[in-house]
Specification:
The complex is a heterodimer of chains A (420) and B (434).
Chain A: H1 16-19, H2 21-54, H3 84-118, H4 122-136, H5 140-154, H6 174-177, E1 180-181, E2 185-188, E3 190-193, E4 199-201, E5 206-208, H7 209-239, H8 246-264, E6 266-269, E7 272-274, E8 277-279, E9 282-285, H9 286-313, H10 316-324, H11 329-359, H12 371-383, H13 386-415
Chain B: H1 24-32, H2 37-62, H3 71-82, H4 92-103, H5 112-129, H6 138-153, E1 155-156, H7 158-177, H8 182-211, E2 215-216, H9 226-253, H10 257-272, H11 275-289, H12 298-324, H13 327-335, H14 340-370, H15 382-392, H16 401-429
Antiparallel strand pairs in B: 1-2
Chain lengths: 420, 434
């Protein structure tokens, strides 16, 4: 009786590397790996040979040499005797400053415009559509340059604010006399403390103790308020009645901060004309103002579209269902529409923040010294180390982008609707 | 007992006009402008803003001057016509310098070449954009890059044509070998053109040029500028970044670990750095990365970098489209026995691309706007490069609104046109019935 022979064990043949799906993916990956390694080796070899030809080496010791150039707008102490490394750090802080100011202002403006564009008012809706289309379809560089040029060419010098010798009054300061726009800078009020606590030196930069005190007060208020609300919830769960908390919340939020501020002797110092310049306030350079305004107006148009799309993505039935449950319009917005709309809005909003941060590198067009202007501009030209400077700059921007998207992704995960 | 009522109307009353407040413009205004306190306030604020913009812009536009030799003359004309202290637009600068805004410093007598290339661009684009046009016209689209290169930069016709021959050689190799072995054919399709360019490009060009000398005056790359430059960079990068973006998106969705991680690293790196730093790499670092002595055209370098930049963004958009596709589509393709590329080409990509059209087009719009950044590597973009050149001349020193408005308007027309086309495409490709 013939027994069923086993299927002969197939021996491995070379062609199986290509035709057998078990091995094919491995083959492809090995080939890709070798191609990539060969490409990388080629690039490194070329770079090495080019550097040798030019008599250069690859090291970052120039970062500890004296920079020798001035930076007009600095957040922390810097002189032209500081190192290139510190100049780079100042540049990074300037990038962060304009990115932060831009993101904050663009979000507020974008939400207002996005909501107004959805309003039933025909005139305002059209006006906002025109705004969005105009700002979205024209390069950002144009807005930066245009606003900067208007600041430089169409605003008066500081002298115009001085009363004339014959008693003619000078120009009025803008915004109820609090800021003065001139062709060199915009003078804005400064926030000062009579009884300042001073700074603590953290080697790299100084941190104001006043600021830390205020932050500490706010954090304390935050936790106190959370405890209050948790207490209210407990009472509500036990008795069914929620105790009134709003005035306690207001007190908790305001009293400690006001106490700290008055203890420190907080006051606002308005800019005033002295000699040829404004003193007393902060003189913000026009390049920063132009960059900030342009980034804000441009990004706001995109954010407006994101907000509009997010709100429109929530079906009408959700609102109707909430009304049917007897929720008031305010609570409908807070409890039903916003949580769902945020899920649609947050991811593209994150990428707009990233775009704004990256777009802030256009600062070079108006001479605002951000990371691109210090490390990738003057330092690069002075030291002639293109390779190191550009690679370092890319690395910093990359780290910045990954950090922002990381933080925002954590936030996104927390507001996301939990499904299954 | 009388059952009939004393009066019965036998004919219908004619319909009355609705009340004055419920019809026509009044009704519309009540509903759309003044339906409540908030709405009325908004309307008033909107009207104030419009009035404010109008009253700022109208006197300036009304006093436009179209013919003058310089800004001083312009201003004096305005003062004479509209009285002391009047300001007005001086469009004379556009009238005098518009060629620079459009062509940069391209030689005057050769303007017909970019013009012709621009017109032919639409001829080449038409069969791609509109399906009603016969498919045969696509052959012209395929040949267009070589033709446009020849028209714009000049030199021998055979130089770009032989470059095209390289693609033809690769295609022939693929067709010949594909019945034998698919993998071998794919490898040959990649290797043959490269070998062809390395070995035969120079000699073949010289030989053909000796037989039939067809050549135009050469124009150096530093003469290019203005919208000519923007359109060259924009169109080239757009057309090259789409296929590259598709490949990257497929790579990122791939099951092969190495391919996937390489795609992710590439995409995240490109998206994490500003375009300016990449342009810097193109202008400063490429000399380090290439064999010593290599030096190729700055416009080409910029185009390559802008393409890489845009392809990473497009890859992310397409990945969204791929992710939005129901899993059943992939499984159905597998069930039909299609292999990977057939499934992608016939089932997955047509649907995924359709979903991603709005995102792709907005990437393209962003790319076209970003072409203005080439000014930072020394090319003359229309926005800063040319405008600064105009503003630096003694005649037009101190002018700023007019050139920016002109350039901004042209950019607006291009970008707005693109976004409208994408809406048309979305409508056309919409197959669901909602």
């Amino acid at each position: 009786m013939a027994s069923i022979a086993d299927v002969p064990k197939e021996s491995f043949r070379l062609s199986m590397l290509i035709y057998d799906t078990r091995y094919r993916s491995l083959t492809i990956q090995v080939v890709v790996f070798f191609l990539v390694m060969a490409g990388a080796a080629w690039l490194v070899d070329n770079t090495y040979r080019n550097l040798q030809l030019l008599g250069k080496d690859f090291n970052f010791s120039f970062l500890w040499n004296r920079a020798g150039y001035d930076i007009p707008q600095v957040l922390i102490e810097y002189t032209n005797d500081s190192t290139h490394g510190r100049a780079m750090f100042i540049g990074l802080l300037n990038t962060l400053l304009v990115a932060f100011l831009g993101c904050a202002a663009a979000t507020v403006l974008g939400i207002v415009i996005g909501v107004l564009r959805l309003s039933k008012n025909w005139l305002v809706g059209r006006l906002m559509t025109v705004y969005v289309e105009i700002f979205r379809n024209v390069p950002l560089l144009l807005w930066i340059l245009l606003i900067y040029t208007v600041f430089i060419e169409a605003t008066p010098g500081p002298n115009a604010y001085r009363p004339g010798a014959d008693g003619t009054p000078g120009m009025e300061m803008q915004l109820l006399g609090t800021i003065a726009v001139t062709n060199r800078y915009t003078a804005v009020p400064d926030l000062l403390f009579w009884r300042s606590l001073g700074d603590i030196d953290l080697l790299l930069f100084k941190v104001s103790l006043d600021l830390l005190a205020i932050i500490a007060a706010l954090v304390a208020s935050f936790y106190a308020n959370r405890m209050l609300l948790a207490q209210a919830t407990r009472v509500q769960e036990a008795t069914g009645d929620r105790p009134v908390t709003w005035w306690k919340s207001i007190l908790i939020w305001t009293v400690p901060v006001i106490a700290v501020l008055s203890a420190l002797g907080f006051h606002v110092e308005y800019p005033r004309l002295q000699g040829f310049n404004f003193v007393g306030g902060i003189n913000v350079s026009n390049s920063l103002m132009a960059l900030w305004l342009a980034l804000t107006l441009y990004t706001a148009a995109f954010i407006a579209e994101i907000v509009r799309a997010g709100i429109m993505a929530i079906s009408r039935g959700q609102t109707e269902a909430a009304f049917a449950l007897g929720l008031r319009p305010g609570r409908t917005m807070n409890l039903v529409i916003l949580p769902q709309a945020l899920r649609v809005i947050i991811p593209p909003l994150i990428s707009q923040y990233l775009n704004l941060t990256k777009n802030s590198s256009l600062a070079i067009a108006v001479g605002y010294l951000d990371l691109r202007g210090t490390l990738g501009g003057i330092t690069l030209n002075q030291t002639g180390r293109e390779l190191e400077c550009v690679l370092l700059m890319m690395l910093i921007y990359l780290a910045l982008s990954l950090a922002i998207s990381g933080v925002m992704n954590i936030y996104n995960a927390s507001v996301k609707l939990k499904e299954r | 007992m009388q059952n009939t009522p004393s009066f019965v109307r036998t004919d219908m009353l004619p319909a009355q006009d609705p009340p004055l407040t419920e019809k026509g413009a009044v009704k519309w205004m009540r509903e759309n402008l003044f339906s409540g306190v908030l709405n009325t306030t908004l309307t008033i604020i909107g009207a104030i803003i419009i009035w404010w913009l109008f009253s700022a812009a109208w006197p300036w536009l009304r006093a436009s001057v179209w013919t003058a030799d310089n800004l001083t003359e312009c201003r004096s004309i305005i003062q004479q016509t509209w009285g002391e202290g009047a300001t007005g637009a001086c469009w004379a600068v556009i009238r005098e310098r518009w060629t620079q805004f459009l062509y940069g410093f391209y030689p005057n007598q050769l303007y017909w070449r970019p013009n012709l290339a621009f017109v032919l661009l639409f001829v080449a684009l038409a069969p791609v954009l509109f399906t009603q046009i016969p498919r045969k016209a696509l052959w012209f689209s395929a040949a267009y890059p070589a033709l446009a290169y020849w028209l714009l930069w000049g030199g021998s016709l055979w130089f770009p044509v032989v470059a095209l021959f390289g693609f033809v050689a690769g295609w022939v190799a693929f067709r010949v070998l594909s019945p034998v072995n698919a993998i071998l054919a794919a490898a040959a399709a990649a290797v043959v053109p490269v070998l062809f360019w390395l070995l035969l490009w120079g000699p073949l060009t010289d030989t053909l040029a000796a037989i039939l000398p067809l050549s135009l005056d050469m124009v150096r790359s530093d003469r290019f500028g203005g919208f000519l430059l923007s359109v060259i960079i924009g169109v080239t990068a757009i057309s090259m970044s789409l296929p590259l973006g598709i490949v990257l998106a497929l790579g990122r969705q791939s099951d092969l670990f190495l391919v996937k991680s390489l795609s992710v690293v590439f995409i995240e790196f490109i998206r994490g750095v500003p375009l300016i730093t990449l342009l810097f790499t193109a202008s400063l670092l490429l000399n380090y990365f290439l064999p010593p002595g290599t030096n190729f055209d700055i416009i080409l370098r910029v185009v390559i970098m802008v393409t890489l930049f845009a392809s990473a963004y497009i890859a992310e958009v397409i990945r969204g489209g791929l992710a939005a596709l129901p899993k059943g589509q992939y499984e159905a393709a597998d069930a039909l026995g299609l292999n990977y590329w057939q499934a992608q080409r016939l089932i997955v990509l047509p649907q995924a691309l359709k979903i991603s059209i709005p995102g792709i087009v907005s990437s393209f719009i962003g790319l076209f706007k970003d072409t203005t950044l080439v000014v930072f590597v020394g090319l003359l973009d229309p926005l800063k490069g040319i405008t600064d050149a105009v503003r630096a001349s003694t005649d037009w020193k101190g002018i700023y609104w007019e050139p920016y408005i002109f350039v901004g308007t042209l950019f607006f027309i291009f970008c707005f046109g693109m976004s409208r086309y994408s809406m048309y495409l979305e409508q056309k490709l919409k197959t669901d019935h909602r």
